[in-house]
Amino acid sequence: MGNDTITAIEGIRVGHSQLEGIYSGCTVILPEGGAAAGVDIRGGAPGTFGADTLNPLNLVEKVNGLFFSGGSAFGLSGADGVREYLKERKTGFFTRHGVVPIVAGAIIFDLGVNTTGIYPGAQLAIEACRRASSETVEEGCAGAGSGATVAKLFGFERCVKSGVGSSLINGAAGLKVGALIVVNAFGEIYDPATGIKVAGARSGPEDGEPIDTIPALKKMTGFQTGFSSQNTVIGAVATNALLNKVQLTKVAQMAHDGLARTVFPAHTQYDGDTLFALSCGKLEDMEVSLVGALAVIAVEQAILRAVRKARSIPGIPGIAD
User: Fold this and answer.
1) pLDDT in tens, 108-133
2) What is the pTM of this model?
3) Which residues contact 150 (CB under 8 A, 6 or more apart)?
4) Which domains does the chain have, with CATH numbers?
């Protein structure tokens, strides 16, 4: 079987690294020669780095590296590692005083799984960069998805293991749109093609039986989880279509529909849902709305794969098992 992940798009490399013996890690996307980029943030509790750089009103057109990390705010130090790696290779924004790598990224809160006090940092991000390749992306409990979980509406103790997923959509005339998503959602996961719940809150810590969520939500006056602002779905979509920052911002905006179609509830005050969009090719005359529509499908598939390929860890069941 061929590569059906985001790295099938020419010029995209992805690398994972994990803390040894700890459920947390880092994932990087390195576009060859840099890539025009946009971003759209929908969650109420985002944790991002460099997102303002990608505002269409601002100067820099391209990003040289994206990183996604566990460790909550501690994981933002991964930016230093990606920047150091790129600087050593003289990759970045050229100035009179040398090359400045442009790095952006986002983090997930996985401290409920990783209670060690040891978090992904610059060195782990460098390791992820060194491992980056155009090979098929490893999915499930890898990289930034190592400590990811979903379905925390009724408390963390009833959640389900998740991870990182990737996908590729082949369109007409050689168009490609791919996605890489780290799924650490507050909400539950549904397959939009069938409406069937893929991963949902369990009736108890030791009970694998799923809760019928919709009737339960109608009886609630709020989420008594004690786990607010500690979830998120983050990731990127990429295309070989030639698009600028304004167009890519629209693609990132549309791509969130894929999140909303698979995660319920999505974009809550407890999530930091953030999606980047990259243009890594020279395929001209592709309508931005078409690319955005395919990005929706790519995000849906990547989210489903992230959950379906995640294996159990102590105390948290995974669908892959």
Assistant:
1) 999 999 999 999 999 999 999 999 99
2) 0.95
3) 159, 160, 162, 183, 184, 185, 187, 188, 189, 199, 263, 307
4) 6-308 (3.60.70.12)
